[in-house]
Write a structure and sequence with these properties.
The chain is an alpha/beta fold. The chain is built from twelve helices and eight strands. The structure holds erythose-4-phosphate.
Length: 219
């Protein structure tokens, strides 16, 4: 499963890249606005730093304007994926962009039928938002399971990016369901490598090792 970073923060991106954890990246208007400043310069820099696909979201609501925005966004780098909201105009824009060899990521997907429509339209990716569904006492991972089954039933090549991830368990469940990718906030990505028993075990090993006389400790 590919791990995408869900961030527009350059220091977070740099650190996660150093750890070899980043196969791609997703942004959204909220993440870019949170960083402030020159969003376009930041987005261009992100496309340069990350080798895999980078999702940049259009903010227009009309198909024609989405296409115009996309035309500019793709100049930011060869790895740009255009994130399109799951709306009727978004659905119109997807096949047009794909026919221009521009990959799309249909975002804000909350039902299996929205995912099916996005796949039929030819989207390269769909992003079901699991955390936001869980917050409404619905089951986000159940949505992912249904989408995976539907895509497998009909051999849709559309890849599923599990989004709105809130904890490491969302990531492991995504992997168990065979999702193609999960897009993960920095803090949760860092949690993936950690376990309290790893820390405790390491501390014990090092304390025990320190009990050996210094000379015997040398290799
Ligand atoms: C995915 O592409 C989105 O940017 C992201 O996962 C949104 O999730 P949120 O619910 O944390 O805003």
């Amino acid at each position: 499963m590919r791990l995408f970073l869900d961030s527009a923060n350059l220091s977070e991106i740099e650190h996660a890249l150093e750890l070899g954890m980043v196969d791609g990246l997703t942004t959204n208007p909220t993440l870019l606005a949170r960083e402030g400043g020159d969003w376009e310069g930041r987005a261009r820099e992100i496309c340069r730093m990350v080798k895999g696909p980078v999702s940049l979201e259009v903010t227009s609501l009309k198909c024609g304007e989405m296409l115009e925005e996309a035309r500019r966004l793709v100049t930011f780098g060869p790895n740009v994926v255009i994130k399109v909201p799951m709306t009727q105009d978004g659905l119109k824009a997807v096949p047009i962009l794909q026919s221009r060899d521009i990959d799309t990521n249909v975002t804000l997907v909350f039902s299996p039928m929205q995912a099916l429509l996005a796949a039929r339209a030819g989207a390269a990716y769909v992003s079901p938002f699991v955390g936001r569904l869980d917050a409404l006492a619905q089951n986000g991972m159940e949505l992912v399971r249904e989408i995976m089954t539907i895509f497998q039933n009909y051999n849709y090549p559309t890849q599923v990016i599990v989004a709105s991830v809130r904890h490491p368990r969302h990531v492991s469940e995504a992997a168990l369901l065979g999702a193609h990718a999960a897009t993960i906030p920095y803090k949760i990505m860092m949690q993936l490598a950690r376990h309290p028993l790893t820390d405790a075990g390491l501390e014990t090993f090092l304390n025990d090792w320190a009990k050996l006389p210094p000379i015997t400790r040398q290799a």
